[in-house]
Write a structure and sequence with these properties.
single chain, 196 residues, alpha/beta, Endonuclease III, domain 1, Nucleotidyltransferase, domain 5, two-stranded antiparallel ribbon, 8 strands, 42% helix, elongated, Retrovirus_Pol_polyprotein, Integrase_H2C2, nucleic acid binding, RNaseH_sf
């Protein structure tokens, strides 16, 4: 056990690597910075632990990274832990059949075009109490579009609101929108306009 390589550099590397391990009784353990001692396993023992964690009574067919974490939490270590877990998951029939797979090939980058009817504005309504958001993309911000949105997305879904706070945009202060709100009995409050 106390034989070091004749080469000075190799002997130094061996001393540094062996400082991370300790023998207690007949068992080899790996020291961790913030973890308890991890029991070092032989290849047959490692295969059994992987099988139990992946398929055993508490097995979840988790991914390789999750399996590595669970093995370390269970208090075990071996040098090829990460690659063994990755290989095991790749060979697991159930994981390959039912796991999340990215089957769509990558696509080359291209310019994105806005969809018809070229909506470039977003009308947003926020309930001040619940913070619920309703939004609608618009090609043009017109009084008619605002009325349709208010009726369809607010009144028909949630009932008539007590008040509506808007900025001083032309579409909000238009007589048609004011009449629409007055008919519903909605109090209309105005704030200053926001400019980006």
């Amino acid at each position: 056990l106390s034989v070091l390589p004749g080469d000075g550099g190799e002997a130094r590397k061996m001393r540094l690597r062996s400082a991370k391990f300790v023998i207690i009784g007949d068992e080899l353990f790996k020291r961790g910075i913030s973890t308890p001692l991890l029991k070092c396993l032989t290849p047959p023992q490692a295969a059994y632990v992987i099988e139990e964690i992946h398929r055993g009574i508490c097995g979840m067919h988790s991914g390789a990274r999750s399996m590595v974490t669970r093995v370390l939490r269970a208090g075990y270590y071996w040098p090829t832990l990460k690659s063994d877990c990755r290989d095991y998951v790749q060979k697991c029939k159930e994981c390959q059949e039912f796991g999340n797979a990215h089957r769509q090939p990558p696509e080359t980058l291209h310019q994105m075009m806005s969809s018809w009817p070229f909506a470039k504005f977003l009308l947003v309504a926020i309930n001040y109490f619940t913070k619920w958001i309703e939004a609608c993309p618009l090609a043009k911000i017109t009084t008619e579009n605002i009325q349709k949105f208010t009726w369809k997305s607010i009144v028909c879904r949630f009932g008539i609101p007590h008040g509506l706070v808007t900025d001083n945009g032309r579409q909000f202060i238009a007589q048609g929108f004011e009449d629409f709100l007055r008919e519903l009995g909605v109090k209309h409050l105005l704030t200053s306009m926001e400019h980006l």
